[in-house]
Amino acid sequence: MNYSSRTKMNRGLVYLVLTVLLIICVIPIWILLVNATRSTPEIQQGISLIPSNNLMVNWKNLTNRGFNIWRGFLNSAFISVSVTILTVYFSLMFAYAIHVYDFAYKKFLYGLILVLVMVPTQVSIIGFYKYMSMLNLLNSYVPLIVPAIAAPGSIFFAMQYLESSIVKELIEAARIDGCGELTIFHKIMFPIAKPGAVTMGIFAFVGSWNNFFTPFVLISKMKKYTLPMLVQTLRGDVYRTEYGSIYLGLAVSIIPILIVYILFSRYIVNGIAMGSVKE
Amino acid sequence: MREESRFIDKLKTYIVYAGPTTFVFFTVIILPFLFGIYLTFTSYDGISNSHNLVGFANYIEAFKDTKFLASFLLTLKYVLYTVVFTNVIAFLFAYILTSGMKGQNFFRAGFFTPNLIGGIILGFIWQFIFSKLLVYIGNNFNIPIFSTSWLADPVRAFWTLVIVSVWQNSGYMMVIYIAGFMNVPKDLLEAANIDGANAWRRMVNVIIPMMIPSITICLFLTLQRGFMVYDVNLALTKGGPFKSTELISMYVYNQAFLSQKYGVGQAQAFVLFLVVALVSVIQVYFSKKMEVEA
Q: Which topology term describes how it sits in the membrane (chain B) (predicted)?
């Protein structure tokens, strides 16, 4: 076997392995979408990778059982969009400040954030709950949205990202040209950080959209339920036998995320690495 | 005088940039966290309004709890496997998908997809896969290992958790490793090539040292996610069969909220936090030390 046909074979093998792995990654999601179009007996009988024709029946079953899935959809969308905007803006701002200015307690702040990323929700949730009930904020979206201003995970990411992409000379040059500090942040840093910002935004959106635990503890009014909470009630009594409808409910809750991802995936797969003018 | 005005200037910029975040940090993270720690020294049961200080009683009870220690050991095993598998797989994906092959962005996007699905939904789909799809395949193609549901067997149920976690997290770590690979200076690799270094030598002596920052982040994230995992555990195995797969987060949660032993559960959660913080800080410290400049 000569050299070039061997590399061709190797390459073929690599593609084969990658394709198999790709199928493993996507097939559970595909099964979910397919099951949303199948009837309950069909699902219980076995597996199919081809959509069936029971979608409308499932939809009727899903929407006729006393709760409004559109309402949950809007609730989730409102929370997730607000969280995304606040997280991206304030995390970048905080990370930028830590990078560009020399604070006396810079290292301490960095360490503090590193530790805060590790605080399990379980440790602080009761304290948070008591505190919110004191402020009369139970069943309100404020405790779900405002904490997004301080998201240690995003700040950690933003600091890592800015470390590789921020050029101090650029900022100094802007200062000498008479730019105000906030103008520098908005006009110079933001465009440079855009790929990182989009990536952070997607993570924030997905995280908030999928968040089950916090709303579950804080929200008790059905009208204010988020989508994952409704999905969880789907698994309760009324739907126990309606597998098709349950899968449709699950499908409805992941489709927005798939759309956001398809629109922005190029930022994720390239984004983190793309810096600014740095060579 | 000048020193003073400089200090005020700095304070002003700090308040403008970091003020809102610092304020929210203190009110929504640090205060409830400290309050939680305070509660570990009380007889609080989660419901009543009054409670007494009990000193270290909760901690003593926490360490006397053999189920807690068993769950902790299981979690350590789980963390070890998920951290190793996730990082090795993600690193290999990233290596192959930065080699300039055709369609690499398509593959990257595909491998990342599992990360988009939330824990509750994830558990539901994988339950279907382990108890229906694999059993179906096992019975029809005569593969004995799949012919009964993995979720019904304590040992295999543990592995379902590892498999699903690795499946979910590899894509995320891959993206971070890809960024790392793209930051390895090309001229260094060329120089190594000219010096006659083969692929393996280039990997060990050039690429890996340049990738330490990415490895630091990925180890940190996988460690932290591993210790904290809750929703996959809840939705996939619910801790079963026979409570054999109750990882530490779930154990602590059940202890506090279901058994009403709030003080003990909270004390155990705090011990968990200390262990995670210690492990992570040590890991980050040593990885930072290994970093090199190009």
A: Multi-pass membrane protein
